[in-house]
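Q: What residues go here?
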């Protein structure tokens, strides 16, 4: 791609670093911004900078939050003894959208994946296990996607907390295998949360 402006080229280059954005799309977006009022680009860059500077990880559940503790952990209406274990913040949003769940979450920040060099210590597993050890949990609901990595992660956590005799469950695998949780429709996902099954029953022995 030949550019008449080095500055434009730099903007396209930066934009094309985003996932799913190739050079052509990046150019289209950049040219779009060039045609819009300057304020739009200003607002966009400010929003992005503020997000990077001010969004925090909740000290309790690792969810993204504007304050030290997220609004779910801070809510007096939630059942604090039930914790749903999810991969990332999109899963929290998907489950919250179902309005079928009143417990708290624990966001791992990924799943164990030796192929990608992600081990248990790269994830927020220890804080979760500590919550169980401190007796703060009655039930742990595993809601990772039904992939090999998801299963491995569930099992790893299960082994760590097995001796503490808390209830463990998993959302019913009605969600087609391999589909990420975030893509499940709300009704199916809501039903899965309500009709969750004992974790042991999900183990392929
Ligand atoms: Zn939280």
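A:
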């Amino acid at each position: 791609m030949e550019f008449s402006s080095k500055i434009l080229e730099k903007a396209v280059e930066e934009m094309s670093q985003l996932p799913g954005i190739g050079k052509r799309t990046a150019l289209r977006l950049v040219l779009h911004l060039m045609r819009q009022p300057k304020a739009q680009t200003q607002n966009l860059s400010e929003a992005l900078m503020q997000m990077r500077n001010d969004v925090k990880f909740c000290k309790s559940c690792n969810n993204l939050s504007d304050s030290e503790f997220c609004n779910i952990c801070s809510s007096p209406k939630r059942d604090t003894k039930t914790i749903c274990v999810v991969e990332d913040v999109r899963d929290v949003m998907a489950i919250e959208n179902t309005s079928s769940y009143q417990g708290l979450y624990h966001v791992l920040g990924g799943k164990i994946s030796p192929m990608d060099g992600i081990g248990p210590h790269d994830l927020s597993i220890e804080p979760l296990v500590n919550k169980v050890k401190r007796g703060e949990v009655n039930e742990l609901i595993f809601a990772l996607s039904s992939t090999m990595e998801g299963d491995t992660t569930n099992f790893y956590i299960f082994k760590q907390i097995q001796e503490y005799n808390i209830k463990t469950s998993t959302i019913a695998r009605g969600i087609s295998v391999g589909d990420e949780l975030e893509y499940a429709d709300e009704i199916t996902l809501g039903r899965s949360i309500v009709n969750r099954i004992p974790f042991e029953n999900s183990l392929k022995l």
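A: Context that may help when evaluating the design: DSSP finds nine helices and seven strands in the chain. Residues 6-54 form a domain with the Helicase, Ruva Protein; domain 3 fold (CATH 1.10.8.420).
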